[in-house]
């Protein structure tokens, strides 16, 4: 393992003392620079790259919370008089729309020796889409407003897919292997703190249901993305491999053979697919809570605040653990999410006092937020550590594309099941989460 003991005094050191000190505190790297799995020249730039990545991704996470397809966009769509059937398309478009095209996007990214610019341009495009959504909120109404929002969300999701592939590759080239989990943990913690503040603010602004209010949220989210793109452009990335990036759709489909030929990767994709309930279950928690406790913006604000609190208190712990064993983080988080979904389904079927029900729903939602943070961080860290170079790009593209397709199918199945029973949907998602935990326990250890 390479270490740069004299990085603070080297004449080639470009980072101010405060940046070096802050990096050492956040990354717990105060006994000599750890440079596992990155080049010597990239190691010299680690403090600045760590901080730029932290700031850029915190801003992008804040933008995601302000323009969430689970809260802000549905409320805006209904406020503008859009067709109610469009509500069921928002989350699938937001998630699968960024995943499905990644086999093609991955091939394009591989052609770039410097890949941070893919993220920068993708971030700028996402900011532009949110800016136009703010215009829609002020100008359009009815079905036209709904179709416009859906169209912009599709474009937004495609840009998000490009950013997803590029980020993992840039991170793999610029951040030491044993510090990636800590970085992800701090990103989730900072965005979680902001989410907590947003939830509390929503509870206080419960009478601000106007087009200008929603437009303001979207414009602020847009500004966050533009600023994030600017910060990310400051990352110092050195040229990487570009082989294998010349083929388009044919080459992308050839990569699907990884699912057949690579046993470790196949087990990863299967477990990840079964763990999707950690993200899909949240709306059903809210639906059952609304049925039992009534609908109010204050209640929604509390759930958003609790989600932020979950990220704030859990992500640094998950991140440190992920550097030691991302496999265990993913497995335990999947088990927690699955068990909580089964518990919420049971609670909703019991006739409990409302005072007790309030606490149970919020506590379970807090647990789900903690579990989802662990699932996301565990599988992201495992993906980056599992492979290097262009193979990492192929893994990201194929797994996200497959998961995107399964997400659409799961969403349709969940919608059909919810027509009969929301509890049945949670039981289905919870059982899948427990199965994911069992499968991932047998993954090969790749972290640490």
What value does the Rg take, in angstroms? 22 Å
The appropriate CATH architecture is Up-down Bundle
In what range is the share of β-strand residues? under 5%
Q: Which strand order does the major sheet show?
A: 1-2
The total count of strands amounts to 2
Mind summarizing the main beta sheet?
A: 2 strands, antiparallel
How much helical structure, as a percent, in the residues?
A: over 70%
CATH level-4 homologous superfamily: MFS general substrate transporter like domains
Q: Quick one: overall form?
A: globular
- Poorly predicted tracts of residues: 1-12
Q: How do the SSEs run, as a string of H and E?
A: EHEHHHHHHHHHHHHHHHHHH
Structural class: mainly alpha
- N→C terminal distance: 12 Å
Mean pLDDT: 77
The CATH topology is given as: Growth Hormone, Chain: A
Transmembrane segments: 118-138, 144-163, 183-205, 211-232, 269-288, 294-317, 329-352, 358-375, 395-414, 420-439
Keywords: Membrane, Transmembrane, Transmembrane helix
Pfam family, one: MFS_1
Protein name: Major Facilitator Superfamily protein
Give a nutshell description of this structure:
This protein is mainly α. The protein has 19 helices and two strands. Helix content is 77%, strand content 1%.
Structural notes for this entry:
The structure is a single chain. With 448 residues, the chain is an all-alpha fold. It has a single domain, classed as Growth Hormone, Chain: A (Up-down Bundle), CATH 1.20.1250.20. The chain contains 19 helices and 2 strands. It has helices at residues 17-27, 40-44, 46-66, 72-79, 87-99, 102-110, 116-139, 142-174, 180-204, 211-232, 249-254, 258-261, 263-274, 277-280, 282-293, 297-349, 354-386, 389-420, 422-440, and strands at 3-4, 33-34. The chain has a two-stranded antiparallel ribbon. The radius of gyration is 22 Å and the shape is globular. The protein starts with a strand and ends in an 8-residue tail after the last helix. GO terms for molecular function: transmembrane transporter activity. The chain crosses the membrane at residues 118-138, 144-163, 183-205, 211-232, 269-288, 294-317, 329-352, 358-375, 395-414, 420-439. This is Major Facilitator Superfamily protein. Keywords: Membrane, Transmembrane, Transmembrane helix.
């Amino acid at each position: 393992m390479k270490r740069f003991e004299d990085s603070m005094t080297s004449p080639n050191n470009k980072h101010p003392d405060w940046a070096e000190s802050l990096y050492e505190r956040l990354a717990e790297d105060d006994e000599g620079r750890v440079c596992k799995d990155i080049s010597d020249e990239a190691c010299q730039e680690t403090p600045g790259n760590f901080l730029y990545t932290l700031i850029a991704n915190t801003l992008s996470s804040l933008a995601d919370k302000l323009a969430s397809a689970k809260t802000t966009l549905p409320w805006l769509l209904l406020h503008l008089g859009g067709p109610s059937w469009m509500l069921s398309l928002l989350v699938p478009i937001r998630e699968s729309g960024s995943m499905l095209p990644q086999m093609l996007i991955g091939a394009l990214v591989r052609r770039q020796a410097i890949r941070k610019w893919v993220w920068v341009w993708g971030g700028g495009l996402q900011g532009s889409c949110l800016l136009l959504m703010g215009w829609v909120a002020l100008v359009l109404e009815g079905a036209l407003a709904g179709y416009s929002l859906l169209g912009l969300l599709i474009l937004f999701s495609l840009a998000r897919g490009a950013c997803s592939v590029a980020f993992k590759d840039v991170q793999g080239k610029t951040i030491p292997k044993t510090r990636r989990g800590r970085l992800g943990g701090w990103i989730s913690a900072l965005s979680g703190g902001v989410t907590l503040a947003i939830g509390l603010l929503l509870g206080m602004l419960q009478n601000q249901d106007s087009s200008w209010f929603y437009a303001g949220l979207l414009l602020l989210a847009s500004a966050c993305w533009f600023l994030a793109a600017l910060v990310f452009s400051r990352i110092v990335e050195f040229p990487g491999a570009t082989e294998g990036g010349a083929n388009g759709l044919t080459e992308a489909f050839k990569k699907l053979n990884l699912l057949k030929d690579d046993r470790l990767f196949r087990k990863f994709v299967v477990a990840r697919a079964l763990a999707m309930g950690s993200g899909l279950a949240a709306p059903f928690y809210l639906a059952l809570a609304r049925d039992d406790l009534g609908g109010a913006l204050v209640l929604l604000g509390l759930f958003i605040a609790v989600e932020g609190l979950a990220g704030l208190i859990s992500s640094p712990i998950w991140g440190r653990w992920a550097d030691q064993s991302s496999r265990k983080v993913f497995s335990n988080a999947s088990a927690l999410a699955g068990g909580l979904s089964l518990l919420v389904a049971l609670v909703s079927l019991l006739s409990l006092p409302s005072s007790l029900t309030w606490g149970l729903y919020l506590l379970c939602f807090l647990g789900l937020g903690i579990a989802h943070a662990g699932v996301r961080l565990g599988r992201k860290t495992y993906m980056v550590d599992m492979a290097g170079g262009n193979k990492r790009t192929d893994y990201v593209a194929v797994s996200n594309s497959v998961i995107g397709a399964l997400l659409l199918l799961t969403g349709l199945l969940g919608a059909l099941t919810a027509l009969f029973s929301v509890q049945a949907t949670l039981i289905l998602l919870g059982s899948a989460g427990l199965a994911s935990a069992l499968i991932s326990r047998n993954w090969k250890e790749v972290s640490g």
